[in-house]
């Protein structure tokens, strides 16, 4: 086992593949470099990019895949306590409770007892949340925040429609759309999520298993936040008004020429969420005030990361899945 001070437990993969490649084992403990912080991880969030990375980015064309090679520790979202400081770090002290999306869109290594991170990727953990809840926030919350608050001119009234409204990004998007200035928010999800979404302030709920969103909300949306995407994304076009905007969270085929003909705008390129402690601090203030909240669908102990990935692959989550690292 070696010198315990220099090692830690982590979940690592030695080959790309299914959830079974995730192995709980002893690995070297990282050391913070200049401008970095060592965090003792209490909880780590699970995100779709973790699943893509575990397969070796199999769904991405070979020429565009990140050059990651095993052995790898996955995970960008963590909440924990500052354990040590690299040279030049003055923003944090050992003992500070912090959370963050680490090194994204690079490799984060959060499924571990300790992780290093650039100091400016962290924000103070919201006092209103425990570490498990805080670890559920960063990527999903920052995606919704950066797309809706950072990038968008404030919505002057109007209606926002969120497709996949009960999921990680979706459940933040329905709350932040309101803060961005939407007068009405329509949430699209399966029927079992109706009460949950109405509790988050959705004005109209569409159960897509009964009625297609494009039918139930025809010409209703000034803004469509689509957290589903995929080859059938264009089926939502009839729900968007002329002059409306589509914000895709994942790649989708929106029949761009047809959309343009309908007077619907799409971004020129896919937006990518980025690590940003300042943005996360703004989100933390909203969480502390109770203006937005986070929902944790399930918690798995770190050694059971493979089971957590199996659950993630089934989809239909309400909010987020989290790994508990330090009880």
Topology:
Elements: E1 7-13, E2 22-28, E3 36-46, H1 48-54, E4 77-85, E5 97-101, E6 114-118, E7 122-124, H2 131-135, H3 138-150, E8 159-163, H4 168-179, E9 184-189, H5 194-199, E10 204-207, H6 213-216, E11 221-226, E12 240-248, H7 256-261, H8 277-288, E13 296-301, H9 305-314, E14 320-324
Parallel strand pairs: 8-9, 8-11, 9-10, 11-12, 13-14
Antiparallel strand pairs: 1-2, 3-4, 3-6, 3-14, 4-5, 5-7
Helix pairs in contact: 3-4
What would you note in describing this structure?
- With 327 residues, the protein is α/β, with parallel strands linked by helices.
- It has 2 domains: 4-140 and 273-324, Quinone Oxidoreductase, Chain A, domain 1, CATH 3.90.180.10; 152-261, Rossmann fold (3-Layer(aba) Sandwich).
- The protein is 23% helix and 27% strand.
- It is built from 9 helices and 14 strands.
- The chain has helices at 48-54, 131-135, 138-150, 168-179, 194-199, 213-216, 256-261, 277-288, 305-314; strands at 7-13, 22-28, 36-46, 77-85, 97-101, 114-118, 122-124, 159-163, 184-189, 204-207, 221-226, 240-248, 296-301, 320-324.
- The strands form 3 sheets. Strands 3, 4, 5, 6, 7, 13 and 14 form a 7-stranded mixed β-sheet that branches. A 5-stranded parallel β-sheet has the order 10-9-8-11-12.
- The longest helix has 13 residues, at 138-150.
- The protein is globular.
- It starts with 6 loop residues before the first strand and ends with a strand.
- The mean pLDDT is 95.
């Amino acid at each position: 086992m070696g010198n315990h001070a220099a090692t830690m437990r982590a979940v690592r993969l030695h080959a790309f593949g299914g959830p079974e490649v995730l192995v709980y084992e002893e690995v070297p403990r990282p050391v913070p470099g200049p401008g970095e912080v060592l965090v003792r991880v209490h909880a780590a969030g699970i995100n779709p990019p973790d699943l893509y990375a575990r397969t070796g980015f199999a769904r991405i064309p070979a020429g565009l895949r990140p050059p990651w090679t095993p052995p790898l520790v996955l995970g960008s979202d963590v909440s924990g306590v500052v354990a040590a400081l690299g040279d030049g770090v003055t923003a944090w002290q050992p003992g500070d409770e912090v959370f963050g999306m680490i090194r994204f869109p690079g490799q984060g290594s959060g499924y571990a007892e300790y992780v290093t991170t650039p100091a400016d990727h962290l924000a103070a953990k919201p006092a209103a949340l425990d570490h498990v809840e805080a670890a559920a926030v960063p990527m999903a919350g920052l995606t919704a925040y950066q797309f809706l608050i950072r990038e968008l001119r404030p919505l002057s009234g109007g209606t926002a429609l969120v497709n996949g409204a009960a999921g990680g990004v979706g459940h933040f998007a329905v709350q932040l759309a309101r803060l961005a200035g939407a007068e009405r928010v329509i949430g699209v999800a399966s029927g079992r999520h109706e009460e949950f979404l109405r509790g988050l302030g959705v004005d109209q709920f569409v159960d897509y298993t009964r009625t297609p969103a494009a039918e139930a909300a025809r010409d209703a949306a000034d803004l469509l936040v689509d957290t589903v995407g995929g080859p059938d994304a264009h089926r939502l076009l009839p729900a968007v008004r002329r002059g409306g905007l589509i914000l895709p969270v994942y790649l989708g085929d929106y029949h761009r020429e047809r959309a343009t003909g309908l007077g619907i705008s799409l971004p020129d390129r896919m937006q990518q969420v980025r690590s940003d402690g300042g943005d996360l601090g703004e989100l933390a203030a909203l969480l502390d005030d109770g203006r937005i909240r986070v929902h944790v669908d399930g918690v798995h102990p770190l050694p059971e990361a493979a089971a957590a990935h199996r659950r993630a692959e089934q989809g239909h989550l309400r909010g987020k899945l989290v790994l508990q690292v330090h009880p």
